[in-house]
Target: Threonine aldolase family protein
Amino acid sequence: MPNMYASTGESDPQTDPATRRYRAMRACTKQLSGPRPLSLRERAAALAEAPYDLDERPDQYGDGVVAFLEERVAGLLGTEAAAFFATGTMAQQVALRCWAERTGNRLVAMHPLAHPEVHERAAYAQLTGLRSVWPTRAPRLPDAGEVASLDEPFGTLMLELPLREAGFVLPTWDELTAVVAAARDRDAVVHFDGARLWETTAHFGRTLPEIADLADSVYVSFYKTLGGISGAALAGPAELIAQAKAWRHRYGGQLFQQWPAALAALQGLETELPRLPEYLTHAQLVAATLADAFADVPGARVFPEPPHTHQFQLWLPWSAEVLQEASVRLAEESGEWLFGWFAEPGLPGISYTEVTMSAPALEWTAKDIHAAVERFRALLP
Model:
């Protein structure tokens, strides 16, 4: 029998889990975790609503709407300048490279769960010859004492705010200022991996410029938290950003046109950024309700409780395969999407998922969550 999907370019939902999950989510009437997935047509149509003059010409090699976005980010963070990057990985590598050149020290202090260690194939070492040192292995940001007692002189302290792999955890404001001061006492510069920095203001009780002012440079993402297509920005002193743009070109990041990503980023700044405090408040309700709904399940837990941002982890004592199948079946049979993907950290029979609040989640009450979890649990062995 011929494959009807072969001529359309679509994946067969019977053999492609991503397509099956996408279709199940799209058909749901209620969605607790994550933003509603958009089709290509919807994505393209949404760009027409971006807060920018669409009668202007497209950007070329970083001017036009891309330059406008850079100015907007610098203004939001209170920095002298900002540079748009196609990927956060590139922005991070360029930032660490520039600081190593400026400090004359290739050693970077970072957490072993930080993005460059876990998700970038050790690019900082392979491409630039940098080395890392870990102030702590605990699932939290390092404290001032740990930074002060490092036995090697380091040129840059990189702090991921929030630390995603540990559960989107953040220090207190006093802890953050103390660890930055400890790095300064070691004559080191401070770089914030702020892919999700946008969502930290409520926890810290500070504005974005106040938070960014603690660091010498800050990286932010446009597709994480803000729902953009792709892209990131590196913000800091004008002299550093000029150097970063030179390395951006060398790394292949001087794309001819990037207007779709820039327009989507501007849209996220306009629509999602103001709603993040509301999402955090709802995340605290959802986390407490999920903890209660699974209270009788040995090994189940929400972390951290309460959440530090609008994202948190849910740990359950089943395999990722079993939990993912139950999630998709719940969506297909009940029209309710509770959880996204599950991962296994290496502990037998234990999996976790990241629960993310966005606009669709706001309609869920504690009663709704309890009822949906009961249906979800009925699908588990």
Remarks:
- The radius of gyration is 22 Å.
- The mean pLDDT is 95.
